[in-house]
Amino acid sequence: MQKLRITSNKQTSIPMGGYNVEYAGLNEGLSPRQNPSHNVKKISILPLIFLIFYEVSGGPFGVEDSVKAAGPLLALIGFLVFPLIWSVPEALITAEMGTMFPEDGGYVVWVSSALGPYWGFQQGWMKWLSGVIDNALYPVLFLDYLKSGFPALGDGYPRILAVIFLTIALTYMNFRGMTIVGWVAVLLGVFSILPFIIMGFVSVPKIDPSRWLVVDLHMVDWNLYLNTLFWNLNYWDSISTLAGEVDNPKKTLPKALFYALILVVCGYFFPLLVGTGAVPLNRDLWTDGYFSEIAKLVGGVWLRWWVQAGAAMSNMGMFVTEMSSDSFQLLGMAERGMLPEFFAKRSRYGTPLIGILFSASGVVLLSQLSFQEIVAAENFLYCFGMILEFIAFVRLRMTHPAVTRPYSIPVGTTGAVLMCVPPTILICVVLALSTVKVMVISVFAILIGLVLQPFLKYTEKKRWVKFSTSADLPDLQNSHEDNESLVCE
Question: So where does this one cross the membrane (predicted)?
């Protein structure tokens, strides 16, 4: 078993697939992606909070199915209890691991450090594909909210053209840089949240608390209920693939995750409380876009239009932040030599040009699936990726408990294991409830990743495609040999 002996230069080393990753300044100084030579503005805490908000949520648009599936009481309980079971552990792990490895590879680097580069690649493949599938939802949700006012957008060529136009326009915003994306997220977030605050005030005279207690356990669609909760409360780890773009991530990232967690939970629970309490229950009506109808009933047509506009703006925010995460993940993998070198190419705005194009193409191809099919497939792939993250988190806690962590969850090894048990059980339940169609498609996608990594290594060996490791990042193969003040035995 390896032992880390750290001397007074305060550098730390983490095994990375059999090698050593040395972060000069993991405790002090600059992270690899904070090199002053990079003339790219870093993300500050306020934009980062709203980037996380949009990575995970974007507001209550899309939670309507929880009421349709289980009724008001279970929907309200779900958005209070589920964050404790899933969101809090995932956010805490993201804070610890993201500050240990402050680079754009994010969770790919976490898994590679604990389980080796092969499984790191599998993590990257599953999470990227899951993210692209997730991003395909937002044009669908956007058009679902608009089709009541513009029926032509419901199906056919107008819908397809609208999806392509939206994808191109929002992709260009990603191309222009993370600073723009971050502050656009702030503005869109405020605009999307405000109508629900107003709806809460104007609905007070119509609130009937007895409506919150309605439940019928014999009429619960558990698959739809859990998938809706899971989809609306996951992806806390996605921000880790942008850690290299964050200003002072070891301090900024944990704070931003904490504030974003509060914002997300309140952003779900309060609108559900208002909507289920102010309007007589008809579960069949609680589907995508129903909040706009509730706004009309309690506040009038003007509030309905604001909610619809907020939904549109929210989907724009979720799209650009998810695409940023997905594309920077590909850039981070290329900088680690896991993908061909051209994936690491940055535009003049510092954005991953090829990664953005690949992610946008995937969105267009997958956007023709139905909402429920997209959510189920995304959740299935995401579950496997999270299992690898939990294993990596616990393994690094067990094998290297003494390594300095800029942010450390205040639990020991046993506590780390116990913290991962409830979300792991939930993952097993979500996987067990998947339909055969979703399971077959998802397993096929996983199998592609299992053979894709050896194929890429073969192309590297044959020199068909150029691979390289960024000089700005720690040398995984030689850092333990070059650093005489840090010895691994």
Answer: 43-63, 69-93, 105-121, 156-173, 180-204, 224-244, 256-281, 349-367, 379-396, 408-432, 438-456
Instruction: Assess if residue 93 is contained within a domain.
Output: yes
Please state, in angstroms and rounded to a whole number, the distance separating the CA atoms of residues 215 and 72.
7
pLDDT of 30 strictly over 70: no
The pLDDT tens digits for 159-176 are 778 778 878 888 888 888
> Which pTM does this prediction carry?
0.84
Give the distance from CA 59 to its chain's centroid.
Answer: 14
Q: Domain residues for 366?
A: 45-463
Contact between residue 61 and residue 145 where contact means Cβ atoms under 8 Å apart: yes
DSSP summary character for residue 206: G
The token pair at 281 is: 């229950």
Distance CA 50, CA 38 (A): 24
Task: Give dist(CA 371, CA 61) in Å, integer.
Answer: 13
For 102, the 3-state DSSP assignment is coil
Interstrand relation of 486-488 and 19-23 (parallel, antiparallel or unpaired):
unpaired
Residue 195's alpha-carbon distances to 261, 296, 302, 304, in angstroms, are 20, 11, 10, 9
Judged against a pLDDT cut of 60, whether residue 479 lies above it is answered with no
* Amino acid, res. 486: L
Give the phi and the psi of residue 394 in degrees, each rounded to 5: -70, -40
Tokens of 26: 């993991």
**In CATH, what number is assigned to the domain containing residue 81?**
1.20.1740.10
Closest to 354 in 3D by CA, of 383, 385, 390, 328: 328
**C-alpha span between 475 and 95 (Å, rounded):** 24
Phi-psi region of 280 (alpha: psi -120 to 50; beta: other; left: phi over 0): beta
Specify whether the CB–CB gap between 218 and 70 falls below 8 A.
Answer: no
Other CB atoms within 10 A of residue 449 CB: 18
When divided into structural domains, the chain yields a total of: 1
